[in-house]
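Subgroup meeting minutes
Present: P.N., E.W., G.H.
Scribe: E.W.

1. P.N. recapped why we're keeping a running log of single-chain structure predictions: easier to compare across weeks, and new members can see raw inputs and outputs side by side.
2. G.H. added today's entry (174 aa).
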Amino acid sequence: MTFAFGHLIGAWIPGKIYEKIKHIKLSHYTWFFLILGGILPDADFILEWTLHNDAHRTFTHSIFFLITAPLFIYLFFKYLKHNKESSQYALALASGIAMHLVLDMATSYYGIPLFWPNLTHISFYHIGLIDHASPSFLDSSAQNLHKSLKLAILDMGLGTTWIFYLWYKKQVQF
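Output recorded in log:
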C-alpha cells in the first residue's frame, strides 16, 4: 500500500526524468497537475470517510478516470481559459494518475478495478474479485492497523526526506 508521499514521489520522478531527457524545465502549472494526478485518485477516501461506504479504489482507480479527468482539464483550459498549455496540463495530470495506478497495482496484492465498472481487481500479483463483505481498511484488525501505521510512518519519512532533498537543491525555501 502506497500512501500520499509515496504517490507524490511516484509522480515527481517521471517529471524529473522528462526534464532531464528533454533538457527543459516544466512550468509550475505543469508540475501542479503532475503532482495533483499523483494523489487525485485517493480523493475517494473522502467519500469513504464521510459517507461510510466502500468508495476507495473504485472509479478513481480506473482507466475511465485516467481518461476523463485529464480530458476535463484539457477542455476547461482549451475552451474556457483559452490556454495554449492545455494539452500539457492534461498530459501531466494523466501521467500522475497513471503513476498512482501503477504504484497501487505494484504495492497491493488485491490491486485496483482498472476496468471499472467491472469490479475485477488487477495487481501485479493477482487478478480477481474483491469480497465487499470483508471488512474495510477502517474496520481492520489491530494487527492490520498496526502494519498500516508502520507503512504510513515510513511514507512520512520518505516525504520528509524528499522535502529536505528539495530544500538542499534550493528548489523550495522555508
